[in-house]
Fold Sigma-54 dependent transcriptional regulator.
Amino acid sequence: MIATRARELIVVTKRYDASCAAFAAMASHGWRIHFVETPAAVARILSQSNRKALAGLVDLTDSQGTVDYARYVQDLPRERMGWVAAIDPGQLEIKDVRHLIRDVCFDFITVPCPETTIESVLGHALGVASLHSESTRHVVQEEEAFGGMIGDSPEMRALYKLIRRAAPSLAPVYIAGETGTGKELAAAAIHHLSHRSAFPFVAINCGAIPQHLMQSELFGYERGAFTGAQQRKLGRFELANKGTLFLDEIGDLPLDSQASLLRFLQEGIIERLGGTDAIRVDVRVVSATHHDLEAAVAAGRFRADLYHRLCVIRLKQPPLRSRGDDIEQLAEHALKLYNGTGQTQMKGFSNCALKAMQTYPWPGNVRELLNRVHQAVVMAEGRYITSKDLGIDASEAGPVQTLAAARDAAEVLAINAALRRNLYRVGHCAKELGISRITLYRLMKQHGLRTEAMERTAEVG
Ligand SMILES: Nc1ncnc2c1ncn2[C@@H]1O[C@H](COP(=O)(O)OP(=O)(O)OP(=O)(O)O)[C@@H](O)[C@H]1O
């Protein structure tokens, strides 16, 4: 097996070799380049390479008239390969060349072509092939699809159920919810549970791209579409072909892109900037925003017809403050994630921190919780994270209460956490808390925890 960290490129050609300036430059940038003459030789190199994807340049320039285009269409390996065709300017007139580009290649270059363009187009093709091979390798099972989403509160269980129902459909999905609630994770789960899971999941944050670049970012552009457009570039729609496109912060989409998106949703076609061809793409659109999209429609900033097309299926991501025990589960997850990044190895959360997290309103939701725990792990001086380490003011953490009530609340939190950690095995949990099983049963009964724990035991068993 060839084990190398270099990017690999296979060039199928009868006339170029390593002395060609463009390839020499790429080799000096760390590319490992194989020159071959036949598709069979490509297959041999692929079988020896342990890279998840390779770039390929198929040289179709044909001064001698010896290239068999139809054979290339049939025989060039496609799995793990990101192909680019090199052609002479007039060759687009040849039907077999057009078919080869359409069916096998991510892109084409016309020679002569600047060295930097060749490298950047091949780098792009390699990136797309890696993305594709990544998603093909993971035919994701249901548990895996939700693997990134922590929480089993009734709110989250209801959401998982809706995601499972929505996933197999072709209809566009709109996910509402406050910032940081996990809308992107939900969109990824929809993709992984759909029949499209072997194809790319492409996400774009419409709020993070300058408005004047949005159209080309989404729909791509043709060579010469504007100053500096030296090569055709595929947009996110084409990159997501056969897969799912997640449009985050859809409310920030400029009006011209709204019109193009509507056309896609109605007719399934897009147009590259500077192009005239209508290109058919097969993409499922999932969109989200934490802003009030209805208000944007009412204010005329968002097209009502587009809004209705996007919201065929509508999901709502619950805010963290309504997710009860999930808060502690997520905090434990964050602690595992970040523990060790500070100077002290933290042992857990103090009772005051657990209590504060339950009553704090979490305006930034899960993202804020992850950040606060991360900061606490780095900055805390003790072994247990306190509410002060989390930066949550005690006055924000709920009303003043009697000592007895505070003790009860702390007991409930500690028992619940121990039960969860020990998968609701009461014996293990009592041992961890340093009390007898009988005392634990008594406390659980006193705080009304008994029934719930027993039900969970039955579920786990
Ligand atoms: N249920 C969850 N389990 C684990 N991590 C989560 C969960 N929900 C969200 N996160 C994490 O919280 C962070 C924010 O999530 P995400 O980006 O999906 O939120 P969002 O709702 O799309 O936010 P925004 O509206 O600001 O784009 C990410 O790091 C994500 O991995």
